[in-house]
Amino acid sequence: MNELQERLSTLSAAEEFLDFFGIVYEPNVVHVSRLHILKRFHDYLRRVPELAQMDETAAWTAYRDHLTRAYQDFVTSNAATEKVFKLFQQATPGTAFVPLDSLRRKL
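Below the sequence we write its predicted structure tokens.
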């Protein structure tokens, strides 16, 4: 494990990651979307297979760019729109249909 990975392994809160990479953020945005930001950050990083082969400077820049992008997704949008977690990816409210007859039979 290189030094960057060791330092990242000590971070847990979204604010810690944002501070570590020197990203200016609105506390209200992070307060509301912290888990979504970190999940999106993780998803973006998974799409960069060459990350493990990068030197620390290039990796640091890639991490910072992807975290900035993840944060910005929630500055201009919200969790329900971005659908980061499976819960939000399921059926849209109002689209589920339950026949009235099936309810009557259960009662």
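Residues 27-46 form the longest helix (20 residues).
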